[in-house]
Amino acid sequence: MPYSDYTCFRLRFDSGVAFVTMDHPPLNLLDEVMSQEFEKLGRELEADETVRVVVLQSALPDFFIAHSGLGRFAGGSKVVSHTRSFRLTQMIGERFRNMPKVTIAKVEGRARGGGSEIALAMDMCFAAVGKAIFRQPEVAWGLVPGGGSTQRLPRLMGRGRALEVLLGSNDLSAELAERYGYINRALPAHELTPFVEKLAHRIASFPPHAIGHIKAAVDTGAFASIAEGLLVEAHESDLALANEVAQARIAESLKLGAETYQGELEMDFLSKLSPIR
Question: Would you list the domain boundaries of the chain?
């Protein structure tokens, strides 16, 4: 039976729009369980000809997706394969970008790390003023983002601003994210849902073949070389993960409150990590 056996997602379908609500408390952590369900859900949505628009949102008020689970990276091997391959988060994002239907992220909480990268992979992203926060924190752990942000951010905001985001490891408000080109629009919280739903239903009312062809044409210009770039990103991410400094900082972060509800609100534990020598 389609759309069955999901523990991290709730789905509602209305006039060609699939409203996908992430509900994996307490953080919507992109861990092994959620990642595998995301991959399965993408395949099912892609194949569903009744769906023309996908809206991705969260049931948790403080978190869109906290980030990828650090437990997936702890104890990483120091031996890095010479055979380049895509990361799962990259593949999830690429499926949502490439499917011949429109995908929209509606962000009302924290979208950091892999959560930011999932939002970036969607065709459009709209965020709530005063509630949405975006961040790529990986560099603080000694890691390289491995879900597409090193390739998508420069295309959206230019090299300098992309490096500011990727190397600065700071939270960005919805307003600043809009100004930088990170997202489509920052909207007052009470306007976000009505705006997104109206846009989704409007797009879903148009011929689906035209939607798919327009996406394909736009992506040829915007993302013609992204596959090669994602392979480079994945390989550099593997190299960074194998570094003993990265492994030590991941372990220390988990002891200091990473992946706990209070710890992830402001990510203050990053400022308490041992200084780099």
Answer: 9-190+207-269
Q: Is 37 exposed, middle or buried (0-12, 13-18, 19+ CB in 10 A)?
A: middle
* CATH T-level fold of 9-190+207-269: 2-enoyl-CoA Hydratase; Chain A, domain 1 (3.90.226)
This prediction has a pTM of 0.94
Nearest to 265 by CA among 29, 130, 63: 63
Tell me the one-letter amino acid at 120. L
**Closest alpha carbon to 2 in 52, 42, 54, 58:** 42
110-163: pLDDT as tens digits: 999 999 999 999 999 999 999 999 999 999 999 999 999 999 999 999 999 999
pLDDT band of residue 1 (cuts 50, 70, 90) is low
CA pair distance 254, 141, nearest whole angstrom = 11
Q: What is the 3-state secondary structure (H, E, C) of the chain?
A: CCCCCCCCEEEEEECCEEEEEECCCCCCCECHHHHHHHHHHHHHHHHCCCCCEEEEEECCCCEEECCECHHHCCCCCCCCCCCCCCCHHHHHHHHHHHCCCEEEEEECCEEECHHHHHHHHCCEEEEEECCCEEECCHHHHCCCCCCCHHHHHHHHHCHHHHHHHHHHCCCEEHHHHHHHCCCCEEEEHHHHHHHHHHHHHHHHCCCHHHHHHHHHHHHHHHCCCHHHHHHHHHHHHHHHHCCHHHHHHHHHHHHHCCCCHHHHHHCHHHHHCCCCC
**pLDDT tens-digit map of 213-240:** 999 999 998 888 899 999 999 999 999 9
